[in-house]
Amino acid sequence: MPDIDITNVFAISVSTPPAGLSSYNINNLAYFTKESPLPDEETPRIPNGYAVYRTPSAVAADWGTSSEVNQAAIAIFSQTPNILTGGGVFIVIPMLPSETLATAIARGKDLVYFGGILVGGFDPWEQEQEPPPEPPENPSVPAAASIFDETIAASDLVQTMDKMLFLASPELNSVIGAGLFAAIKDANNTHTRMLLYTQIGGSQNGHRLFAAAYAGRAMSTNFSGSNTTSTMHLKDLATITPDPLITETWLEACRQVGADVYVGIAGIPKTFTSGGNEFFDDVYNLLWFKGALEVAGFNALATTSTKVPQTEPGMSVLKGAYRLICEQALTNGFISPGAWNSPEIFGDPEDFRRNIEERGYYIYSQPVNQQSQPDREARKAPLIQMAIKFTGAIHSSNLIIYINR
User: Fold this and answer.
1) Same domain, 290 and 263
2) 60: confidence class by pLDDT, cuts 50, 70, 90
3) Looking at the structure, do residues 204 and 234 belong to the same domain, yes or no?
4) Is 44 exposed, middle or buried (0-12, 13-18, 19+ CB in 10 A)?
5) Residue 243 in contact with residue 197, Cβ under 8 Å?
6) Assigned domain for 1 exists
7) Is 42 within a domain?
């Protein structure tokens, strides 16, 4: 006899989970260069305006062993740990002939994602001490900007982005007076990591290789791990020798503007970092945290097959996604429990202080029933506020010894 289809009794459908964004990774390191790759053979070496590398040998195959790009790659991948440890890659982006560094960065960010920026092929201090150019004969034609101004413009741009610029100079005068680093400090461009490394005893581009080694070591944190966040203070850099010109006087000048150096301390080569322009790890970790929260919030909405309701349970879904990132930050050592030292608090004061003391973070959202009607009609979530307690790091110590005879 004929069968009646079972769907008359049971109707089952399979729903594929909506797609979300992958985990946020800030450790991709972009290198902007005015060098050209080796001549193409059968296929273009840089087909999309950029190339991605995970080994120095692959860089050498495209750019040649004597290129500065290859030297930078060796410096980056020689560090232990390096960008690969943090899931990052080395990206080379050739600059167009007419581009400034700022316009190249703006173009590059639309080609591929990167969190760190290195510069190769030109030096920003070449015109640092030169007088400004004469005004053009035709007032409607602007005078050409100096490389000094070009670098300041790039630093200003990066400050508006969730990225970091690693900028090196071989000139001691960069950290004093109207020098490049002093100007960046005055602009409060904390996303620019200033690195001083003189050319004495090194190669002509030794300062840029110092920047490459520093960035390779700095952007190595695997934020998914336990106690993985780090500081660059007193770290070793493979392939880099200590700078012989950094005296106590120049070290103090570097500390004032926030320039980091590589020096010998008691005969041992170490980085010496300064918080004069914020400590690197505070800026770097916070950029990761911000990006991770953005991805978590997006995925909380995008991977829900129905909707996240505009109710308190719905807000719990969103805050729960943010809470997971806070717990991740607690695990990797970016934040930690402690006393809140600021008079500025929000939400319930008792809950605020207890959460900071026990978990290192506090999340509060405006009650849904207090939300304005225009925001509700626009389907906005009520305002969410978050407080976190930085872990910090010990960089120095004082000791008093009491003796009794």
Assistant:
1) no
2) very high
3) yes
4) exposed
5) yes
6) no
7) yes
pLDDT for the residue 138: 44
The two three-digit tokens of residue 157, written as one number = 């741009």
Q: How high does pLDDT run on average in the chain?
A: 89
368 and 310 share a domain?
Answer: yes
> Quick one: angle between helices 312-332 and 349-359, nearest 10?
30
This prediction has a pTM of 0.89
Is residue 19 in some structural domain? no
Task: Kindly indicate the confidence band of residue 5, based on its pLDDT and cuts at 50, 70 and 90.
Answer: confident
- Evaluate if residue 22 carries a pLDDT over 70: no
Same domain, 198 and 89: yes
> Parallel, antiparallel, or unpaired: how do β-strands 51-53 and 90-94 relate?
antiparallel
303 and 235 together in one domain: no
Q: Which residues contact residue 279 at a Cβ distance below 8 angstroms, ignoring those fewer than 6 apart?
A: 231, 233, 273, 393
Q: What are the structure tokens assigned to 148, written together?
A: 């000094």
| Domain span holding position 252 | 29-129+142-272
Tell me the C-alpha distance between 21 and 303, whole Å. Answer: 9
Greater confidence (146 vs 271) lies with 271
pLDDT score, position 103: 96
Least confident of 36-40, 265-269, 375-379: 36-40
216 token code pair: 């390779």
Please indicate, yes or no, whether residues 219 and 323 belong to a single structural domain of this protein: no
User: Are the beta carbons of 184 and 266 closer than 8 angstroms?
Assistant: no
**Is 279 inside any structural domain?**
no
What is the spatial distance between Cα 236 and Cα 219, in angstroms, rounded to a whole number?
Answer: 14
Strand partners, 30: 91, 117
305-356 confidence digits (pLDDT tens): 899 999 999 999 999 999 999 999 999 999 999 999 999 999 999 999 999 9
Shared domain for 49 and 184, answered yes or no, is: yes
Count of domains for the chain: 2
255 and 324 part of one domain:
no
